[in-house]
Amino acid sequence: MDNMENPWLKLSVLLFMWLSLNCQLCFGADTDTISANQSLSGNQTIVSSGGNFVLGFFSPGNSNYYIGIWYGKISQQTPVWVANRETPVRDIQSSELKISDGNLVLINGSQVEIWSTNIRTSNSSSVVAVLEDTGNLVLRDGPNSSAPLWQSLDHPTHTWLPGGKLSLNKRTNQSQLLTSWKNSEDPAPGLFSLELDPAGTNSYIIRWNRTRQYWSSGPWDEQSRIFSGVPEMRLNYIYNFSFHSDENESYFTYSLYNPQTISRFIMDYSGQIKQLSWLESSQQWNLFWSQPRQQCQVYAFCGAFGSCNEGGLPFCSCLKGFHQKSQTNWNLSDFSDGCERTTRLQCEEDPSLVTGKTDKFLESPNVKLPESARSMSVGSMSECESSCLEYCNCTAYAYDSDGCRIWMTELLDLQQYSQSGSNGRTIYIRLAASEFPSSSNNNGIIIGAVAGSVGLVLCLVIFVIFRWRRQRMINPKVEGSLLAFGYRDLQSATKNFSEKLGGGGFGSVFKGTLPDSSIIAVKQLESINQGEKQFRSEVSTIGTVQHVNLVRLRGFCSEGMKKLLVYDYMPNGSLDVHLFHEENSKALVWKTRYQIALGTARGLTYLHEKCRDCIIHCDIKPENILLDAELCPKVADFGLAKIIGRDFSRVLTTMRGTRGYLAPEWISGVAVTAKADVYSYGMMLFEIVSGRRNSEQNEEGRVSFFPTSVARVIAEDGDVLSLLDPRLNGDAPVDELSRICKVACWCVQDDETHRPSMGQVVQILEGVLDVNVPPIPRSLQVLADNSEHIIFFTESSSSQSSQTPSYASNASSQAKSNTSSTSS
């Protein structure tokens, strides 16, 4: 029998042909392309040519599905663009993304078009959609066409990818928006958006509900190539920034110097813009930069009748007498719905007030008052209260030196300040009378008699407790070499944390006095999530660290979320006060500055090399160098630094530290070493020399970056005295000044292997080693260059770049070599 006459064989061939055709229609010849008569459905995806991005259906955590683009080379699915933000689909098997009439369209299970690119084209049959390796989805008139008919980068959602732009069309006065998700599980447009100011100020602004502006980048400064309100842009060398403006449009864009870096800029549902980098080693996103810096600076973040508090998590809470409108949304950190009354106002229940009752007011002190108040001309607080009671929609009033103000709307943007805050006002919140305890009590006489009879006993008990607590505070529990204090003891010693000495990334520091009259500094830690055992273990380890150039940790407190550290008090404060605040102190003479630099280096050497475990400080800056009565430097704030064993050379940790002092490896995401401290120390040396911040803006609005000036002067063998703090009138030995400038330039080399150890720094500053001329770090040159084409300074080609460079030689040997050359 002929093979083709076999019916089973014919059926197999037909089935094979149908499957081949079906696969071709679904996926196409190119895995990054959707052509006419092709579609995506179910779990099908297309992948960009280099595998960087994927397009397909995804679900952010609920039962809804969206067409989106996400990263293809990282383990955590992270969408960067969403097509149908407001119209999700439920059944992805019957929904399709396809080319139809020259457009890319999304059809749901009911065959209804719910999203489209909405363009017009004359030749619809040749249109293709291509996912590029930049994350841009492009619609083209044929696979070989270069001009896009439509592209996703022109329609951003909440992520601004490198190469994309947020523009202002000057002809239509329309801005492109970067709009937040509603919450972590809902990509629908949220309340917060970033755009180029339609007023033409060349500033980016963040708005709440497209109306209320609460942050601005400041105008673009073409000379300095930064936005004036974001000076830290000058400290960046990962991104290449560009601003364009002509008669048609203005826009800002950026690119990555290293294409292998995975970075994204988002308008977060927290109301903050954030720059994040992917850490492959820890498989997570690391926050590099955000604005506004404080969560409570985001307008109305906690919604109506919600109060924001920076003191701890969660940031939002409802006012007394109110509860969350949506507990589900609050669990997703979406507080936009705000709060609603637990009990309706009396005037709403009984407009005629026939019951004789009335609403009352709850005093809320030390808060930031909301906007949109109405001023009333009254002469007393009682009259102000009565003015509010006249209107059933009056929600609150305030009476102070600014007079009487009442609020006739929902209360938005309330912020509760800490007890030590000085900017707070008092507001009186209107509540139903039933929210207050009844003032009438038939047993009042009996209660008064009982109170009088037990008063003497109560006083006696209080006296005994006070004596016991006083004795316990004088002799607190000893744990290892540290003292374990009670929270109330430290609260009493600091007079309820009333005298603030300063603050930083880990918390605020308060002055206190123990019963034995010794003065202490108490650090109230914030955002510390360690468990009790881990916290005590780390603090106990730090407690064994003793060095003349390290501030002494005397004890600690750990009661639940309340974690505090107790240090010796330093009467001369921190170094930054003496360097940057001329009105507070006399300029430090050069000899003192040099000894501070040397003492700090010795303290860090002890942490890095002399302790049982290597301790990386992670936040070296003038604010963390304290000065005792003799101006001897003490490295402070290393209580919760990173401890690594001697068997390890690196440690992986989340980014910590201060902008302007961060080493490049923090940003690139690799595990850090003690060389991260060396970089921060070098940045601080520049400030010790100049007596000013490394990045400053002058009266003309131009921003200067001092480390770049030092690097150039050193490389060109220029006048180092020109770098000295002008208040010293050139009174400094040239050799010491030159030595400290060279050390600083070595410390801030981009490659950590090219930086000296802190032990070598000590030897150089002591004169044991002589320091060679350093190469100009590439990052400093990038920051200084204001032209379109950046000139990179690299090390010489004589194999020096592949080896550890020579920082120094024996002081007896005067052979010095310049390890750098320049090329463009």
Automatic annotation (TrEMBL):
Residues 796-824 have a biased composition (Low complexity). The chain crosses the membrane at residues 445-466. This is Receptor-like serine/threonine-protein kinase. It is a single-pass membrane protein. Residues 31-152 form the Bulb-type lectin domain. Residues 347-432 form the Apple domain. PROSITE patterns: BULB_LECTIN, PAN, PROTEIN_KINASE_ATP, PROTEIN_KINASE_DOM, PROTEIN_KINASE_ST. Residues 495-769 form the Protein kinase domain. Its main location: membrane. Residues 1-28 form the signal peptide. It comes from Hibiscus sabdariffa (roselle). The keyword Nucleus does not apply. SMART domains: B_lectin, PAN_AP, S_TKc. Belongs to the protein kinase superfamily. Ser/Thr protein kinase family. Its EC number is 2.7.11.1. Pfam families: B_lectin, PAN_2, Pkinase, S_locus_glycop. InterPro entries: Bulb-type_lectin_dom (IPR001480), Bulb-type_lectin_dom_sf (IPR036426), Kinase-like_dom_sf (IPR011009), Pan_app (IPR003609), Prot_kinase_dom (IPR000719), Protein_kinase_ATP_BS (IPR017441), S_locus_glycoprot_dom (IPR000858), Ser/Thr_kinase_AS (IPR008271).
